[in-house]
Every structure is written in C-alpha cells, then in structure tokens.
Design goal:
The chain is of the alpha/beta class and about 400 residues long. It folds into two domains: about 150 residues, Alpha-Beta Complex (Aspartate Aminotransferase, domain 1); about 230 residues, Type I PLP-dependent aspartate aminotransferase-like (Major domain) (Aspartate Aminotransferase, domain 2, 3-Layer(aba) Sandwich), CATH 3.40.640. About 40% of the residues lie in helices and about 15% in strands. The chain has 13 helices and 13 strands. The protein has a seven-stranded mixed β-sheet with strand order 2-10-9-8-7-3-4, with helices on both faces. α3 runs antiparallel to α10, α11 runs parallel beside α13 and α12 crosses α13. The longest helix is centred in the C-terminal third of the chain and has 22 residues. The N and C termini lie far apart (about 50 Å).
C-alpha cells in the first residue's frame, strides 16, 4: 500500500523536546488525558469559561439581524466590503494605521487562518523562521508544515516572569532569516512590547531584510492604561509586517472564529486566495458580529478590560500566597504564567499533580516552547469565585508536592 500520510503532516506534529530532557507535547498530552480519565470531574483553567464570559448583547443582536436579512452571504473571499471598511476605520482610530480596505485587509475565519496563510504564502522549504519562545503554541506546527527552518528566540527570564531580549534576537538573526513571529501582548507570558522593544525589532528587520508576523489578537486586552504599539507603524515596517487582529478575546467571542489580516497588497492577495481555496470565506454572520464590535463605543471595551483586570488581580494576589510559586503580573492577555520551578519538579509533573490532587487542569509551560518549562499557564477568564477557590487549591497542592 502506498504511503497514506504526507510528510508535511508528519512535520507538523507537535514539537519534540527530547534534546532538553522534556517529553514531547504529544506524550505530555497523552499523560494528561490519562489523568483526566482517572479524576473524571475537574475544572479547566486552560481556556476562557464561555458560560461566564459571554459576548455583549448588542453583538448578539447584530448577528440576529444579519441572519434575518442575509444580504451578502456570498461576499468576496477577502470579506464583506463594508466590514473591511469598518476594519480600516478601527485600525486608524485604535492604532493610527492607514489601511486600504480594498487591497490590504482580509477577513479570515479566525486569526489561526492568518497564521497558516502567512506561512503558506511567504515561506519556501528551508527558509529560516524565528519564533519567540515562549509564545502561542499553534505557531510552530504550521511553520514545520511548510518545512521552515525553525529557530527559537528565548525571552529573558526575570523575577518569575519574562522580558523581551533584544540581544537574544540579534544573536539569532542572519541574512538567511525570512520571518520573525511573535505575539503582542505575549501569549502565554502576558508581557507587552515597549516602543523601544519594537523599534529594536524594526531596526533588525530593516537591516537584515526579513519580514515579521505580528499576532496582535490581544491588542485591546491591555491593563493599567498601558499603551499598545503596533509594529507596522514603525519606520519601514508597513512593507515588512503581516498584522493579525480579531475579536475573540476582549469581547469573549472565541466561538465566532473571525479575525483579520492587515498586510501589503501582494501578501494580502495571496492569503485571500488561500482562504478561498481552503474555506471560501469567513462566515458572513460572524463578520457582521465583528463589525458590531469594532463600531461599538469605547465604554464597552473599557468595561471588559476593567473586568479582566479585576480577575487578573484576583489570581495574582491568590498565587502570591503560594509557597514555591512566583507570578509576574501580566500586562495583557487573559493568562498568568506562574513560575513553579521552586517546587522541585517540571511543569508536566506539576500539571498532573494539580489535576490529580486538586482537580484543576492547567497546561504545562513547555507546550508554549521549551523556554516555557518551569511555568504553567492559567486562564483567568472565568468567575471571580472560581479564581479565588482555584488559587487556594493551587497553593495547597503546591505546599503538598513541594520537594
């Protein structure tokens, strides 16, 4: 019988970390799955609780209206023209970006399609792709799918958290580098890139002639009134940056699977072709939901940010009381990424122990890159009561298993 599975799919399997003494992600997930079966009932703090974090009512109404009057269900593969105009207006108001809605914006079924579309559109086999480490876990597999040469760029560990490390990036950049990928704010560590950080990235990109995929999905979910800067606004970077944004996080609309890509015409066109051949288009109703979000008064987003910041403070305050755990206060996203290395065990073992003893599931840190080892990721987009009780349980388990 001929080979059934293509090599590209085998390359795209979850990364192996045996060279640094870690389980592969596939092995880690298999072990966690076995513990889940043992404990049966548990709380997951791996993703947002969609039963608690509901979409705003005015967005639901916009979807209902779109379903009742589907004027443009078969819209262009790039997205409904009016929605793209709304995206362009949002980019101008929120980030100071002048975008051409007809040629530089593609509405996608989730930002993951934007990630995959960028790799397929831009990367040839053997091209070097730099990935910030730790970062979003669904970036490395598609990079390997297109047979890129993947090089991790570690963030600097600092006081239980992380900082962007310009020198680490500079040391790994070469004339062979084609693409740098990073999220801002960073998922999972919650760090926000400063203007100086982004200026350094822009300088290297211009000097070494590489492109950047900037995942800015959490660009509105930023705390303590800190400013968010978009890399594409820096000198020379509009031509070099593919920017991803969406509605799934601030507005708790993960299930709508809608986002958008902003990029120069040549790349936007290629990504739209991939959307066409893979999924045709983002669902019209979800596009109208995104339009409603991007047109809403600022007070709605400000209230959602306030709610998330309150939840962040609850979990950070609770974890600060735990022996052997250090937790950096995130500047953005809906995650904390506490350092559990002082407990004397790896993140996989702690994840299993917490699930078995505390009936709480949190993913091991190395699932977001080998530099995430020694941490676990906790999503705080759930009820305040759950956060308070979970923090107590995590602290109790940490005390019990500390070596």
């Amino acid at each position: 019988m001929k080979k059934l599975v293509a090599d590209r799919m085998l390359r795209a399997e979850l990364p192996e970390y045996s060279d640094v003494g870690l389980l592969s992600q596939a092995e880690g997930e298999a072990r966690i799955s076995k513990v889940r079966q043992e404990v049966k009932e548990f709380i997951s703090l791996s993703v947002a609780d969609s039963k608690v974090m509901l979409p705003p009512k005015h967005v639901v109404e916009a979807v209902k209206k779109a379903m009742e009057t589907p004027a443009n269900v078969y819209c262009p593969h790039t997205g409904d023209p009016q929605v793209r105009k709304t995206v362009a207006a949002f980019l101008k108001e929120f980030e100071g970006i002048d975008a051409d809605p007809d040629n530089e914006i593609v509405v996608t079924p989730g930002t993951q399609m934007g990630i995959f579309g960028t790799f397929v559109s831009m990367i040839d086999p053997g091209d070097e792709v730099l990935l910030i480490d730790p970062d979003y876990s669904c970036v490395e597999p598609p990079a390997r799918f297109v047979d890129a040469k993947v090089t991790p760029v570690p963030l600097k560990k600092s006081n239980g958290g992380y900082l962007f490390d310009y020198e680490a990036l500079r040391e790994r950049v070469s004339k062979k580098t084609k693409l740098l990928v990073f999220s801002n704010p960073n998922n999972p560590a919650g760090i926000l890139y400063s203007k100086q950080d982004l200026a350094g990235i822009a300088d290297l990109a211009n000097d070494y002639d590489f492109f950047v995929l900037a995942d800015e999905l959490y660009n509105r979910l930023v705390y303590d009134n800190a400013p968010h800067y978009s890399l594409t606004t820096f000198p020379g970077m509009k031509e070099r940056t593919v920017t991803l944004m969406g509605i799934s996080k601030t507005e708790s609309m993960q299930g709508f699977r809608t986002g958008f890509v902003y990029a120069k015409k040549e790349i936007a066109q290629r990504i739209s072709e991939l959307v066409r051949y893979a999924v045709q288009r983002a669902p019209y109703y979800a596009q109208k939901a995104m339009e409603a979000v991007l047109q809403e008064p600022k007070k709605y987003a400000e209230e959602r940010i306030r709610i998330h910041q309150e939840k962040r403070d609850i979990i950070v305050r609770g974890l600060s009381k735990a022996t052997g755990i250090r937790c950096q206060k995130p500047q953005g996203t809906s995650y904390v990424f506490p350092d559990i290395s002082e407990l004397g065990m790896g993140s996989q073992e702690f994840s299993e122990q917490l699930l078995r003893l505390g009936k709480i599931y949190v993913p091991a840190g190395y699932h977001f890159g080998r530099n995430g080892e020694g941490h676990v990721r906790i999503c705080f987009a759930c009820s305040n009561e759950r956060l308070e009780e979970s923090a107590k349980t995590i602290a109790a388990v940490a005390q019990k298993v500390r070596k």
